[in-house]
Write the structure tokens for this entry.
Amino acid sequence: PNRWHVRDAMKLEHIDEPLLRFQSGEHICPRRGITAYGAFDRSMGTRRTDVILGSVGSATCNEALDRWVTRCASEIPGVENAKQPNLRVMFPGMNLGHGFDATLKFSQDLARTIKKSEVDEIVGIADRRTRVTKAIELYYEHIKFLAQNRPVDVVICVLPDALFKVISTDERGSAEETLEASVEVASELNFRRALKARAMHLGKPLQLIRAASLESNKRGQQDDATKAWNFCTALYYKAGPRVPWKLQTDDRRPSSCAVGIAFYRSRDRQVLNTSLAQIFDELGNGLILRGTPVDMSRDDRTPHLSANQAYDLLTAALTEYRVALRAYPARIVVHKSSIFSKEEVDGLTRAAGDLKIDTVDLVTVMDSKLRLFRDGNYPPFRGTRVQMDEARHLLYTRGSVWYYQTYTGLYIPQPIELRIVRSEESPSFIAREILGLTKMNWNNTQFDGKYPVTLGCARKVGEIMKYLEDDASPQIRYGFYM
């Protein structure tokens, strides 16, 4: 049943790689586009050109960060004689006049030093939970000082290798990334997620870095240019509001807003909440909301919103959209990683109707165990869509990429399955829209992400929200959860 023969399928098509828009041109690749045409928001009048960095780490870590930031200010060549030159491109330097047209500002007076004796004390604690808790509090106190006493945009937490080894949690997961919520034992404490939740009220996004990753050209790591691309793009976005790139859209079409709904469990596994990641518009300006507790369906053991919960959640999100853009969108598309219940459909469509929104599209985006096979050694191309029936479609968002001349993954890619519950648009348009939204992840400048940001973002938000106290106010900007 898991072998699907193309000749039996109703329809197979290849969707061209969606274009991204930059300041003065378009390209499919974020790296080439920023280098050739500049970050999209360079022409915005309110934009600042400096990104001020604070740092928490040992003296050695802070010095290593200083050297790396200095290195990122200048051009870093790509891999010499690379077999895939479009995958290993040069980094133009984080400086004024080209590319990002911005600078990273860091100096030792923006650094807070953790003593070696403090690290040794934590490393020597036998109980892992106590060890991680102590590390969180140690970093938090320094983050708090920087947030309250220094004009920083982002705080970088550099973890000495000795500390990293005893507090890290393996977050790589299974061989293939999934949309399902990660399994986290209640007694386990994830340092990265818990620290971001602990410091969220301070209003400064965090960037966590292992000290070893600040070393240049280290074996087993990304090349320096790729590392600089991902490091600088993430900081540029987190320091916000900044827009490195946006999706190219048809200006003749009415305004549209994409919404993702995902669920996460409390750490004691007793309460199931919703987290919603809304993309205001094609700029990728997002809104994060925490929904109310939901019940598991007795029939299929999957979480569902009641009609009133669906109504309230979408109404709150669209109200924030109106505040930001001074108008409601003409169309909304809602992505969900599980089947829409009748109550959810009723609540979502009622909310849209009451706000006079003309078009509502509802699409389930699921992991699929079906696979396509292609002649040769490479998997199907990213952008391959197969229509199984009118409502069900397979879409390869990970796969061979013509522009890269390779498949960049380590494992055989699995497509995602799209189940179109209701839509005024064609299946081809829905798939093309989802493919475009996979490119709106500013934590990675390689453009072949698996999931649309609506759901990839919502899951990561949930992973951190489970560490927030019930009375804590979550930040609404995605940069705090990256």
